[in-house]
């Protein structure tokens, strides 16, 4: 019979390290602990400027994430996280000239807003109906002009067989979309409105809830970006919409929106539609 063990795992109890009641050694060292012990590799005030209060507490102070307001709670996202170098080793070679061979991929791009970053993801669609999406690459740009970002997207089309590109052309995304159209005429354009955002979020929620998305567990930036998506009300108070707080790490959740642009290429019912079978006797 299993036994329940009561353990104090607070920072005050574990900051010096201790052997706990389950015979496991545990220690919590926060960024403030490190600074207090003489580490001078970072500036605390700069870190506070770089991260939102929630990110600072989670990433640097070893505190649990408060995902109560997030559309995509952490428990849901944890089911998506894999060791990509092991789990995808048979058909994905990140360092190869053609990382995914001749299989199709989709690209999602979200432009920068004032003072933050742009994001791009490369997604492998399911090989069978209802199968899993895999996020093969993700990138963030800060300070790159339209031409440089479009050129980066074009380089991806030379390494992968790209069959779909989805871009938010609202505001600053217009310039990138125009340049991408020159080498990929079939680019899909999103002009944001509460209705468009709702459609994007509902599709992503359906995929993630049904455990149809995989990405590398080490990509904490993608996880933080998805956690940042929250439901809000438009200024008029008449419609529900979705927004994200800004920080230097997540931008305006650009990686999350870029991912949603890519997932949108599959119809909302794509993963759950009823499938008929035929029996041959």
TrEMBL record:
It comes from the Bacteria. This is Terminase-like protein. Keywords: Viral release from host cell. InterPro entries: Terminase_6C (IPR035421). The lineage of its organism: Bacteria, Pseudomonadati, Pseudomonadota, Gammaproteobacteria, Lysobacterales. Gene3D superfamilies: 3.30.420.240. Residues 107-265 form the Terminase large subunit gp17-like C-terminal domain.
């Amino acid at each position: 019979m299993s036994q329940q063990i009561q353990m104090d795992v607070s920072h005050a109890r574990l900051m010096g390290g201790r052997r706990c009641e389950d015979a496991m050694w545990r220690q919590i060292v926060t960024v403030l602990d490190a600074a207090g012990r003489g580490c001078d590799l970072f500036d605390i005030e700069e870190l506070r400027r770089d991260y939102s209060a929630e990110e600072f507490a989670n990433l640097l102070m070893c505190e649990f994430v408060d995902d109560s307001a997030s559309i995509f709670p952490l428990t849901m996202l944890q089911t998506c996280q894999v060791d990509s170098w092991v789990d995808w080793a048979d058909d994905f070679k990140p360092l190869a000239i053609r990382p995914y061979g001749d299989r199709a991929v989709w690209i999602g791009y979200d432009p920068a807003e004032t003072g933050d970053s742009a994001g791009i993801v490369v997604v492998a669609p399911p090989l069978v109906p209802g199968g899993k999406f895999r996020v093969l690459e993700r990138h963030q740009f800060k300070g790159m002009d339209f031409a440089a970002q479009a050129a980066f997207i074009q380089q991806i089309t030379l390494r992968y067989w790209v069959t779909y590109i989805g871009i938010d052309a609202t505001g600053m995304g217009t310039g990138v979309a125009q340049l991408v159209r020159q080498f990929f005429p079939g680019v899909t354009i999103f002009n944001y409105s509460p209705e468009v955002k709702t459609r994007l979020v509902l599709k992503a929620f359906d995929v993630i809830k049904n455990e149809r998305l995989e990405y590398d567990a080490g990509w904490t930036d993608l996880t933080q970006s998805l956690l940042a998506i929250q439901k809000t009300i438009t200024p008029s108070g008449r419609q529900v919409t979705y927004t994200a707080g800004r920080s230097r790490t997540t931008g305006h959740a650009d990686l999350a929106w870029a991912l949603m642009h890519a997932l949108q290429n599959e119809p909302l019912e794509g993963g759950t539609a009823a499938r008929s079978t035929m029996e041959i006797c």
